[in-house]
Structures are given as C-alpha cells and as structure tokens.
Amino acid sequence: MFAMDDTPIDDDFEDDEDEFDHFTDAQDSVWDTVMSDLAAGRATGNWVWFVFPVLTGIDDAPMAMFYSLRDAAEASEFARHPVLGPRLVTCLRKLTENDRPLSDTMADENAYKVRACATLFEAAVPQDPIYAKALDDLFAGQRCTKTQRLLREPPPALF
Q: Which SUPFAM superfamilies match (predicted)?
C-alpha cells in the first residue's frame, strides 16, 4: 500500500498495537469510578474483570475470556506494563488498607476474581509482596486452587 506520494503505508497494525490496549482502554473509561468505589469500600461497576485480570480458564464468560491472561509469563508482562502494573498494585493496596471486610466491598463472585488474580500474580511476580499480602489479608492466606491448577496444567490453546 502506498500514500499519494508513493510512500509506503504501514498497514501492519499488529506491530503497532500494545497487546494490553483493551485493558488500558477499558480501565481509562472507568478509572475515576474504580478509585472512588475502592475509596468508599463499595464496588458498584462491572470493572473487576479488567482491573483484576485472571488466568484464561477461570471463567468461560465472554468478558472473562476477553480480559484473561494466557499464563504466568503474560501476567508478568502485565505487571511490568507502565500503566496497568501500577494500577493493579494501587487497587490491591486500597483493598488491603480498607478497614471493611472484602465482602462489604464487593460481591462474592468479584472477590473470587480478586483472589484468582492475586494468586496468578503471586506466581508470576513472586518478588512483589503485595500479591501475597492481599491473599493473606483478604482471604486468610487461601490461594485460588483453580488458578494454581491451571498454572500447573494449562488447557489446550484455543488458536
């Protein structure tokens, strides 16, 4: 493909697109709500999937699949992302610093996603203590056994 002046046009969008753009786009659209929900101790939106990502296979809902991470390596990349990594840590800190029980902040199914997320990231980024702290403080040290199993025995690739 060429522009009007015969300059080649780069049409390889795959190389240009950040692999986590769908996460940043989703988070950017509700970030103020996420912060106010966590500060108030009450999660009111449907943002948990893309703020606390889980491993592919935790849930088969379309939203879960779209915002899931393939493996520990991809979770490690997510944690190193200049926007997403710090946001995840900020959200986990807000939850652990809240004086209210997690069950007062969010529904059980969302708390499960947080536990699955923290379990995944603890395995992917063991040098960062925030994930173990979140699991210890919020879930009495209970890890998500389904996440642990999927890390040991990944499902066959879909593509």
A: Rv1873-like
3-class SS of residue 2: strand
Q: What amino acid is encoded at 14 in this protein?
A: E
d(C-alpha 47, C-alpha 41), whole Å: 15
Q: What is the pLDDT of residue 99?
A: 81
Assess contact for 50 and 83: CB atoms under 8 A: no
> Three-class SS of residue 73?
helix
Confidence grade of residue 86 (pLDDT, cut at 50, 70, 90):
very high
**Measuring CA to CA, which residue among 130, 133, 101, 114 is closest to residue 34?**
114
Q: What is the mean pLDDT of residues 76-104?
A: 94
What average pLDDT does the structure give for the chain? 88
Over the Cα atoms of the chain, what is R_g? 18
The SS3 of residue 136 is helix
Query: pTM here?
Result: 0.86
